[in-house]
């Protein structure tokens, strides 16, 4: 299939997948259960999620491994199963993907270097163990996502670049300030992200979660002002969440998301997919618009 980034450089716009966490909950994942353990205990349900996005027209799907570092799974008594859980996650998505791409999801550890929670070496080793499992299971790329701190993102990229042959992508999560600027929880701007992550060796960068596609347009424009060459990936929420009858609701319909796809392509995005609240229905509509572009 070649590299994802080579196809982007040749002009292809890719469609990625949508939300996983809410989908797992719909299938019965309980509060307090480890989502990654389902790769071993409920592989059919995990496969169904992956396959639903392929059937909706996604060119690439992620893996059920977002919380797959030792720092997350040890809370469930699974510290000795990191490699196994991540390998299983990759194998399930690989089986569902057919001739499409699989990108191995790597989320933040929840540890903060500047607070002294963890050492750089411990973080690096945690990411190394996870990405080795994902590569063994057959992923094409490593997708480091929902990062808020540059030091953690940089270590994750280095661990993936130095220990696998995979392409390495990294996205951060930005919130809009009252001044209308975009910053991560740790105060990082999209412009600052670009310089650090490109220097760290990321093959593609971007943003996920935190915003609907409307605000993602502004983030992509800022990334493009800083760098016109690096491939850019966006996984947007289905709008901004609100609470209704005790539930978190993401209000944006597939049609509402799809109508903004031409604008985010024009801003410079190369891969468009969904995060919280998005469904195969959203991805199907994004696919239709991308095919017309």
Shape: globular
Overall structural domain count = 1
Count of discrete alpha- or pi-helical segments spanning 4 or more residues: 13
Q: How many DSSP E strands? A: 12
Mean of all residue-level pLDDT scores? 96
Provide the CATH topology.
TIM Barrel
**What is the end-to-end distance?**
23 Å
Strand and helix order: HEHHHEHHEHEHEEEHEHEEEHHEH
CATH superfamily: Homocysteine-binding-like domain
Share in helix: 40-55%
Give the class-level CATH name: Alpha Beta
What structural category characterises the helix and strand content? Answer: alpha/beta
The neighbouring-strand order within the major sheet is 1-12-9-8-5-4-3-2
Query: What's the architecture, going by CATH?
Result: Alpha-Beta Barrel
Describe the structure.
There is one protein chain. The chain is of the alpha/beta class and 293 residues long. The protein has a single domain, classed as Homocysteine-binding-like domain (TIM Barrel). Helices cover 44% and strands 18% of the residues. The chain is built from 13 helices and twelve strands. It has helices at residues 4-9, 21-26, 38-41, 43-55, 70-73, 82-97, 120-136, 150-163, 190-200, 213-226, 254-258, 261-267, 280-292, and strands at residues 14-15, 60-61, 101-106, 141-147, 167-172, 175-176, 182-183, 204-212, 232-237, 242-244, 247-249, 271-274. It has an eight-stranded parallel sheet. Strands 6-7 form a two-stranded antiparallel sheet. The protein has a two-stranded antiparallel ribbon with strand order 10-11. Strand 10 and strand 11 (247-249) form a beta hairpin. The mean pLDDT is 96.
């Amino acid at each position: 299939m070649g590299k994802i980034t080579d196809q982007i450089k040749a002009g292809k716009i890719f469609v990625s997948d949508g939300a996983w966490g809410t989908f797992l909950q719909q299938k019965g994942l309980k509060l307090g259960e480890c989502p990654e353990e389902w790769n071993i205990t409920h592989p059919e349900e995990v496969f169904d999620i992956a396959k639903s996005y392929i059937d909706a027209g996604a060119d690439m799907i992620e893996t059920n491994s977002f919380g797959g570092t030792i720092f997350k799974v040890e809370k469930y008594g699974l510290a000795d199963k990191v490699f196994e859980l991540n390998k299983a996650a990759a194998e399930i998505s690989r089986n569902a993907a057919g001739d499409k791409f699989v990108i191995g999801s790597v989320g933040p550890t929840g540890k903060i270097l500047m607070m002294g929670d963890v050492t750089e070496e411990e973080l690096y080793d945690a990411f190394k163990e996870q990405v080795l499992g994902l590569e063994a299971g057959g992923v094409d790329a490593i997708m480091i996502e929902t990062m808020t701190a540059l030091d953690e993102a940089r270590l994750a990229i280095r661990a993936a670049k130095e220990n696998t042959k995979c392409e390495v992508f990294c996205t951060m999560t930005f919130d809009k300030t009252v001044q209308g600027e975009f910053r991560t929880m740790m105060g990082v701007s999209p412009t600052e992200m670009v310089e650090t992550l490109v220097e760290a060796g990321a093959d593609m960068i971007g943003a996920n979660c935190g915003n609907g596609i409307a605000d993602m347009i502004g983030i992509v424009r800022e990334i493009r002002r800083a760098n016109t060459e690096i491939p850019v990936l966006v996984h947007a929420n289905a709008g901004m969440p609100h609470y209704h009858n005790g539930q978190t609701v993401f209000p944006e319909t597939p049609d509402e998301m799809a109508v903004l796809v031409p604008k985010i392509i024009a801003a410079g995005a190369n891969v468009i997919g969904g995060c919280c609240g998005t469904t195969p229905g959203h991805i199907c509509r994004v696919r239709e618009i991308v095919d017309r572009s």
